[in-house]
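Researcher: Before we compare anything, I want clean individual predictions. No alignment, no superposition, just each chain on its own. First chain goes here; please echo the sequence and then give the structure tokens.
Model: Echoing the first chain and its structure:
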Amino acid sequence: MAWFDDEADYYEAAAGPLRQGDLVLAPTISIEPGGGESAGVAPAELGAERLVVLWSAITSTLPEAPSIAARIRWDLAMVLPHDCALEKEFNERAAQLIAAGASEDGAIAEASADSRLDRHIAVAPIRGYEDAHLERRQGIRNGQRLGTFPVVASARYLIEPGWVDLDAPTTVARSLFAPAMRVAALSSQAVNYLRAALAKHWAHRDLSRAEELSRTIGRTIVAVHAAPMPKDRLRADLVLDDAATITLEGSRKPAAPARSTRRTV
């Protein structure tokens, strides 16, 4: 059984401050040209989607903005940034307070109470498989489709199977997330897979590493493929510009950055 088939391997209870991989209830938005309906009563059920007019053009001539509407969805979403990014300003403020003579506990408490720090959080919508093309669904379930991340069904957390759409992130104010809006958290193992999916999506390959290896080998690397290996082993096949392949094996997977947080709220 793959890791993403078992909810016990995939989820854990959400606790403490927001963290990377948390599943939350949140609005996600895409901006579209044209008109829409007027803003009105909030959606009363998950999965509801509305096209709301934001503004209407008068002249339709630049530099005036065109008519714009927002397609807003109210549903499950996943927190994307690493814990370090979620607490960047908080950590800087705590360090300043400690340098000024405050105790570590006092600095953490004071920085945690400052609602101006790290106000914005990026989340991505979780969609059902009916929203994906039929030929893409199995690849998404297996964690192999670029720009997606599988979400496991959970009887404990009442979550349907689906996938995170990494192409459609939305910035949401941290203050929106009341405790009741946090549904579940990813396990440390699942977060590592999320990080890999994000890395592949935003930087399909690590160009600096590829260039360094190319200089060492004396050939240009045109493709890198992960190869199946026993548990806790890493192997990659490097395809060169003359169609030759070099296989690299490591004794262990590189250690992922530790998940940590000092924020108290």
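Researcher: Okay. Second chain, same rules.
Model: Second chain and its structure:
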Amino acid sequence: MITGLDHVQVAMPRGAEDAARAFYGGLLGMTEDPKPPVLAARGGCWFRSGTAILHLGVEDPFGPARKAHPAFLVDDLDGMQATLIKAGYECVRADGEVPGVLRFHTRDPFGNRVEFQQGLPQAGNRRGGPGSAAGHPRRPETSA
């Protein structure tokens, strides 16, 4: 039985750790976790914020994830969007596609898709309020 989620990993190009740190650490405000020495030798970097843990691993040859993505819960979606736009990142809103959830997608410096979402503060929404991690209901698989 699955009891939780430890981390999500996305790929990055070899030698691009500084760009990952600038985006995930600097822009998004995530904290970098040290990698164990045997894994650090492979490149990449690890980040966390709250319960969100993201590992970036070197993939050679690299190809960005255009559909697969992490979805981060935030408590100020508009503020996050403004920060990303000011830094030159396009943000595509997708509010209302999932009932009770405000969200947008952007791309990290490597072209990987990244989602940010915030629940509406309404009774019965699937997120339980802004930034809540209440989880998904069971639903059939879709191509979303």
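Researcher: What stands out in the second chain?
Model: The helical segments are 17-27, 37-40, 77-86. Additionally, Confidence is low (pLDDT under 50) at residues 128-144.
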